[in-house]
Amino acid sequence: MRRCFADFAAYLDQRTAGGPNSGLEGMGQAYLACAEQKPLEYRLMFGTPWPQPAEHPELIRHAVHAFDILRNGLRSTSRGTETDVDLDALFIWSTLHGAASINQADVMQHLELVPTVMERFNGELMNRIDSALSDRQFKDPAAAKA
């Protein structure tokens, strides 16, 4: 698990370090791509009960580093508090995790979707995440005063 999280964090670091896909959308696309390219590692990281943190500090360090890539991206664009950043990060992470998990389970092929839906899914997912975050910041009275 430690090696999987180290590889996952390194993958996200490489995909989000500058360049045209360095923003939150690039990070989201990198998350989904890594889950697709390394399905066994992804299931090990997120489908296995974690060991005690005190016994595996390197695992925790790599996992927190991967999550901090998302939080740091949000901090650079958010007007909210650290609580808002954490809530937004958990929203994005859980949404991406859900998409990656149902993709891996091969569920979507049985849903009788319009053929173009799957071609557009990842892009639409990121657009809707962006829209949800923008809507939340707009409705947040503290953000509106800023």
Instruction: Provide the helix percentage.
Output: over 70%
Number of domains: 1
* CATH class placement: Mainly Alpha
> Rg, please?
16 Å
CATH architecture: Orthogonal Bundle
Count of separate DSSP helical elements: 7
Unreliable stretches = none
CATH T-level topology: Tetracycline Repressor, domain 2
Structure, explained:
By secondary structure, this protein is mainly alpha-helical. The relative contact order is 0.13. Helix 4 crosses helix 5 (82-104) and helix 5 packs antiparallel against helix 6. The mean pLDDT is 84. It is globular and about 50 Å long. The chain has a single domain (2-145), classed as Tetracycline Repressor, domain 2 (Orthogonal Bundle). The longest helix has 23 residues, at 82-104. The protein is built from seven helices and no strands.
Key terms:
single chain, 146 residues, mainly alpha, Tetracycline Repressor, domain 2, 7 helices, 75% helix
Short description:
This protein is mainly alpha-helical and 146 residues long. The protein has a single domain (2-145), classed as Orthogonal Bundle (Tetracycline Repressor, domain 2).
Secondary-structure blueprint:
Layout: H1 2-16, H2 24-37, H3 39-47, H4 57-77, H5 82-104, H6 117-139, H7 141-145
Helix pairs in contact: 1-2, 1-4, 2-3, 2-5, 2-6, 4-5, 5-6
